[in-house]
Each structure stands twice: as C-alpha cells, then as structure tokens.
Amino acid sequence: MSRKAALIGYSGHALVVEETLASQGIELFGYFEGKQKTNTPLTFLGDERSEEGLQWLKENNFIVAIGDNLTRRKIYQKILPELSYVPLSAIHSKSNISKSAIVGDFVQIFIGSVIQPLAQIGKGTICNTGSIIEHECRVGDYCHISCGTVLCGNVTVGDHTFVGANAVIKDGITIGANVTVGAGCVVVKDIPDNSVVVGNPMRFL
Question: Considering the entire predicted model, what is its pTM?
C-alpha cells in the first residue's frame, strides 16, 4: 500500500525535517497542528489527537517534527500502539552514518551530521545540523543533540537529554537521563540524571 506522509507539528524545526525528507525523495502531503498555517502548500490535517486524525495516521505515515524531547515522546507513545507500521525517519542524504552504527526508529538526522563506527542512536532522537557523534558513543531514546555539538568517543547520553548547540563532550563521559547541557558547554566530568549544566568550564545550576 502506498502511504501518504505528514508532519505532526509545523514550526521552524518542522521546516528542517521537511527539507531532510525531501533529500530522501519523500514528498509530504500535509501536517497536523493546533492551528492552520498560512503560505504552505501542505494540506492542513487538523489535530492528530482527534478520531479523524488518528484514523489518517493508521492508514498513512508521519514523523513528529517537534524539537522538545518529552513532547515528541508523548506523541509517539500515544500513537504507536495504534499502528501496524514503523513511522518515518528523516535522515538527510548529506549526513554521514557509519555502516557499523546502530540507528533507532523514527530518528531525525540532519544535514552535515556524522555518526561514527559502533555508535548507537536511540529511537526518536534528533541529531541536528552538523552534529558529530564519535565512535562507540551511545545516545538514548528521545534525545536532542543540537547543531554543531561534538560527542567525543565512548560518550553515553541518557534518555530524554538535551545537548545545546556547539557543546563539546569529552571522551568517556557519561551523561544521565533528563539532563540539559547548555549551548557551548564543555563537559569534562560525568553528569547525573535530572541535572542542568552550563559554561566553560562546566558548572551545575
């Protein structure tokens, strides 16, 4: 069966998802959003939580184009039990993923991203523009590795963690779940769950 494809969420992040899908030859039909947008060729499909929206999703395909980790996870977890298929991943044709890397379902890997040998990327995770995931790193489910971030070798990142733009994580570091790493932060020691760190040198908030 030929499925149509749609976005759930249609803000700035979704524009990058849309372009990434286009690089894969995937043409979008429409989008789900709380409010209809102007000046878009995509069909407005309403609220994905409605009975009609859920029925459309059962019959077609989609990706949750929302940058916030917990919101993205919540939407997938609500819809996935209703489906007989695995939703789309957005993997840019100009990203570079090692053949030995393991990449989960419905990920978003944007232009210029590099995922090196034996790295693991969890389901629902975003590797944003120009991010570098070095050898043997392990990134959990529903994470967001922001633009220009560098994870040196053997870094572990727990589920739902957000790593801000241009952060650098030293090799061998373990970052817990539900952590926020500020933009430009240089991480040189392990970070426990539910922490917020910023700065260079790194400090806890």
Answer: 0.96
Spatial neighbors of 93 by CB under 8 A, at least 6 apart, are 23, 24
pLDDT tens-digit series, residues 108-159: 999 999 999 999 999 999 999 999 999 999 999 999 999 999 999 999 999 9
Number of residues that this document lists for the chain: 205
* Residue 57: partners with Cβ closer than 8 Å, 6 or more residues away: 6, 48, 79, 82, 83
Measured CA to CA, the distance from residue 135 to residue 132 in angstroms comes to 10
The answer on pLDDT for 2 being more than 80 is: no
Q: What is the dihedral of CA 137, 139, 140, 145, to 10 degrees?
A: 170
Which residue ranges form the domains of the chain, and what is each CATH number? Answer: 5-82 (3.40.50.20), 90-197 (2.160.10.10)
